[in-house]
Structures are given as C-alpha cells and as structure tokens.
Amino acid sequence: MNATARLFTLVGILTTGACSEGDNSCVGPDAAWLEDPNSMQTAHRAVNTIQLNIDAVPHWNGQAVSWQALAEYLRISGTMNPQPLTLFRPTAEAPCAEVVRIRLLMTRELQCAEHLACGEGPEWSNVPDQRGFEI
After folding, report:
1. N- to C-terminal Cα distance for the chain?
2. Where are the beta strands (DSSP E) in the chain?
3. In a structure prediction context, what are the per-residue pLDDT tens digits for the chain, which is 135 residues long?
4. Element holding 86 (H helix, E strand)
5. 10 vs 76: CA distance, rounded Å
6. CA–CA separation, 33 vs 65, rounded Å?
7. What is the C-alpha R_g of the chain?
8. CA 81, CA 106: separation in Å to the nearest integer?
9. What secondary structure letter does DSSP report for 45?
10. Omega prior to 82 cis, within 30 of 0
C-alpha cells in the first residue's frame, strides 16, 4: 500500500469512530427486547425512559445523570415488583460506544428478555409517560 492509500485509510478510521459501516452494534436493540409497544406486557406498567444525545450524557426520565447513577437506577428497577418497563431513546447523533454501553447495562441489570422489561425504537414514541421513579 502506498503512502497516499495509507493516509486515506488512517483518515477513514479516525473519522468513522468506533462504529464502522459494517458494525451493527448501533443498529438496534437486542433481539430479546420487546418489539411491540401494544403487547400485553406493557399494559399498566410504570415506564422509565433513558435518553442519550450527542453529548453522551444519559438522561433518566428527563434529568441528566452520571453513568454511576444510571447503573444504580437500573439496578434498583431490576429489583422492583412489578418491574417497570425501561425505554431507551438514543438520538441518531448519540455516540455508538455509549449507546452500546447503555444497552449492555439495561440487559444486565433488568434481565430484559426474562422480565420483558426493555424497549427501544421509534415504535415506542407513543407509549404514555407513566414515570417509574424520579430522581
């Protein structure tokens, strides 16, 4: 590879960040997460919302929180009975590494598949805001 080709390769790596075009980690949530907001599992449940924007600061029910606080809130939510539904709403500009980090935290602390406790995506935008717990 000549020097020009190496330079373009390096520039490409630096400008694409952690998520390359072939990386599907930021495409969508885990397949075990709830897909249908109209399912019976979502009826009459408290709903917590996590938002993530380009600034990579997580928001819990509209309030900016630290990563440590977010992990603690998810841990607490995972112990509640009934367990609240937690919706993740990353913007398109949210950094991929932090999107993946939140998905992993949610999956671990909420046991998403087992408790049908996690949702993500535009189809969840009409779910009523029935706040679980405030900070």
Report:
1. 55
2. 47-52, 58-60, 63-64, 85-90, 118-120
3. 444 343 333 333 233 333 433 444 577 777 777 766 666 565 667 889 999 999 999 999 999 999 999 999 999 999 998 888 899 989 889 999 999 999 999 999 998 888 888 888 766 666 655 555 554
4. strand 85-90
5. 43
6. 24
7. 17
8. 17
9. -
10. yes
Measuring CA to CA, which residue among 48, 110, 47, 49 is closest to residue 75?
110
Quote the tokens at residue 19: 């998520």
Going from N- to C-terminal start, the domains of the chain cover 28-124
CATH of 28-124, one of 3.30.470, 3.40.50, 3.30.1360, 1.10.10: 3.40.50
pTM for this structure? 0.72
Torsion of CA 99, 105, 107, 112, to 10 degrees: -100
